[in-house]
Design brief:
The chain is mainly β and 71 residues long. It is 8% helix and 49% strand. The chain is built from one helix and six strands. The N and C termini lie far apart (24 Å).
Length: 71
């Protein structure tokens, strides 16, 4: 995951692997360090195979099991 927009400008451009998630945060592994990132106020860029998706963190502010139920 890459952070392309953030209220906290020090997070902008951060790139790493999501290793854990709560309702309001991601824990991202960056250079062998864990960073806890608040979803609200960030726009995340996800790459899946050759496709790139930009997602506003507000849309992700649910528990993973709750997002599955959304249609």
């Amino acid at each position: 995951v890459k952070i392309i927009e953030a209220q906290n400008q020090s997070l902008k451009g951060l790139n790493g692997k999501i290793i854990d998630e709560t309702k309001h945060t991601f824990v991202v592994l960056v250079n062998n360090n864990n960073k806890t990132i608040i979803k609200k106020g960030c726009v995340f860029q996800f790459k899946i195979k050759e496709k790139t998706f930009n997602v506003d963190g507000v849309l992700l502010e649910k528990r993973p099991e709750e997002r599955i139920k959304i249609k």
